[in-house]
Structure formats: C-alpha cells, structure tokens
Amino acid sequence: MPPIGRLLRTAAILGAVPLTVQLALLIAEEVSLAGAVLAMLAVWLMALGLAWFWLVNLARLTDALKAAVEDNDAFSVPFRTPRLPAVADIEEGLTRLARSLQARSALVGQLRAADESIVENLPDPLLVLAEDRSALRANRAARQLFGLKPGAAGDLAALLRHPALAGTVDRALLERSAQGADLHLPVPVARDLHAQAIPMNPPLADGGRVVVVLSDRTQMRAVERMRADFVANASHELRTPLASLIGFIETLRGPAEDDAEARTRFLGIMATQSERMRMLIDDLLSLSRIELSEHQPPQGEADLAELLRAEVAALEPLAKGTRIEVTAPDHLRANPADAEQLAQVLRNLLENALRHGKPQGQVRATLTRVEGGGRLPNRPGLLLSVADDGPGIPREHIPRLTERFYRVEQGRGRGTGGTGLGLAIVKHIVNRHRGQLIIESDPGHGAVFKVWLPGE
Known about the structure:
Blueprint lengths: L3 H24 L5 H39 L13 H37 L4 E4 L5 E4 L1 H7 L10 H4 L2 H13 L3 E7 L5 E9 L10 E7 L1 H20 L1 H15 L6 H33 L9 E2 H12 L7 E5 L5 E2 L4 H18 L5 E9 L10 E7 L34 H11 L3 E6 L5 E7 L3
Parallel strand pairs: 7-9
Antiparallel strand pairs: 1-2, 1-5, 3-4, 4-5, 6-8, 9-10, 10-12, 11-12
C-alpha cells in the first residue's frame, strides 16, 4: 500500500485539470451544484484509483531494481496487479538495460578471471601492489618462493619494506615507467633477486597500481660461487693427500721398488689417502648440490623416526663397540621434507658423534615432538638430538663449527677420519628445510647437536 500522503499528492496532480474545469463550470452556472459535486467526486475517485495503480507499479519496479542490484540477479518484476502502459514501457526498457549490463558484467568477470589466471600461472614470482604499496595478491610462484599460503599476500610486508624494493616502487609510480633493482634477502635463506616494478595505468580490476616481477637469480649466483669454491677448496684440501700419493709412488718406483714390506705399508697408506680424496670430492659435490637448491623449500614429507632407525642400523658395524641408544616414537613426520637429505643429516650427525665420542662409549639419539618457544621457533615441530660422551667443544669454537673445513684445534677424533664438511652439509640441509641447528657443549661432558624441523 502506497503512503497516504504520496497517494493524495499524486491523485491531486492527476485530477487537478478536470477538477478545475468542473469548478469553473460551476462558477459560470453552466452546471448545477449537485451535478458539479457528483462530477468532481467521480473525478477525485478516478484520480485516486489511477494514482494507486501508478504508485503500486512504480513501487514494484523499485523493489525489482533493488533486488537485482543487491542479489546480483536478473531484473524481473513479478506484477500481481494490472500494469499501466507507460509502466510496461518502462519495464521493457529496464529489462533491456539490465540484460545489457549483465552481459557487460559477465564480460568484465571473464576478463578479470583471465587476468587472475594469467598472473597466477606465470612462472616468475609476481606481486600486485595497491596505491599505498601494500600487497593485494601474490601468484603461485611468489607464494612458493616465500612459503606463503593462498590469500596471505599481506605477509610480505617485510619484503616490501626492503629499501631497494621500496625505492624502486616509488620511482615507478613517480616516473610512470618500469624500474628495476637487485635485492639480497638474507633470511630465512640467502636469496638474490632482481625486482622490476611496472606501474599500471589505468589500475587493474582489483585496484592494483604496481606489478612487481621478481626474477630469482639465487641458483645462477650459487652456480658461480660453486665453481669458484669447488676449485679453491679442492685445490687446497686435495694438495696434501695428492702430494702424499705422488711421494709414495716415486718411492715405490725408486728406493722401495724391491722392498715388499715397505710396498705393503705404503700401499695401505696410499689406499687411505685415496679414500680420503674420494670422500672429500663426494662431500664437496654433495655440498655444492645442496647449496644450489637451498633457496627452494623441499616437497613431500618424511618419517623421521624410521629414517633414524635405518641410519643407526647402517652405522652399527662401524661403531667399534660404541653403543647407540635411540629414543623415538613412531610416525613422527617432517613436512615439508626431502627424505634423502634428512637421512644425510642423520648420518653425518651420528658419524660425528661416533668419531668424537669415547671409545666403547655411548651415543644417544632422541627424537621428540615439541611445541616450540625458547631457542626454538614459536610453532610445533620435531626436535632431533644427538649427544656424544667425548671431550666436548670449547665454547669459542661452537659458532664456527659449520664452516667448511673448520676443525677444533685440540684433537678430538679417534683416527676415523673426516672431511671437515659434515656439519656444513647439515647446516645447509637444515636451512633448506626451514629448520634450526643448535650446538651445545660443556668441555669434558660431550656435545649435543639439536635439529628442529617443521613437522608433526
């Protein structure tokens, strides 16, 4: 029911002319008073009826328009009352307009979906920034690069505050042209990126004003460093065993040519030096491969308890009387994880404990689920602990233990060898898994190597 005030005003407008005519005829005494009153009453009733129909028709049009806008539905007017011709024409025009707008809206939606699909599937990491430099979205490659979940582009605030990147975005908006810069991100693992900021004019459908394309050059730089480091390390570390081999060969070809006892002893030493060279080259190549992919998080998961038991079983023949005690509940899974690399971490830590523990001593390997906090990250994960009963490590040496070829000055080994690369390999694998390596030692009371990994 239309409001009474509006109904009366509309009826007055519709009946104004005939009422005025009847009043004029009455004044001119062309009609009788009774006839004029009846005619004016009839006109007023017809004006009220016509006003009611008109207002009801308009109200239904208004309700239909609101419903179409608010619910994003097709425009339709379910008339339960007769329609005036003019209202029918208006309805037809609105229907055509609504269909045209819906078609345009569908086209815009298709274009926006295509835009999002293209951005999402680009192989290079890409960020879309708003006018205030906040991140609106990040594509799949960017989420994988920074370990983000879908819809978590806002977590890139620390990256966007990087001075080089912030300056590049500002220049792009100011000069309205693409700008580039090189970035070095030290955490969580070192990365070398090239960022290109491209201003969008007009803005994208979601309000994006700048598109930032990131090129990950970490692997390329790692290859360059790997070549230089391999040559430098190999030339330095292989010099001693190679000189020893050359000296023994010359001795066997000369003074000791007919000395069977010396030949047997020298060949044994040569075999040991050759094995050391093989182990050194294997570890250098392994470390180089790990560093090459350190910036890329692993995929999949691994049962850490099962891996630990397998490595302990494989090393028991080499323990030489040392007892390895394992405490690990079943089904503790690291995720994300590379099972082969985590097995290498376990192997290196156990070998290190066997090498530096007491003869006929004990090595304790413990695996537990932890909630985090303290020296550990503030989230649930798995904690691996490998403890030996050796002489321990002086406190000043602990920060440098994961450096390549770094050795504590005091002799800690039992003559079992080692390349000096085991803990460096462990560090880089743990970094790739976004974990944490903690070394604790009290001289005279052994050493404990702890590895925290994300998992459950």
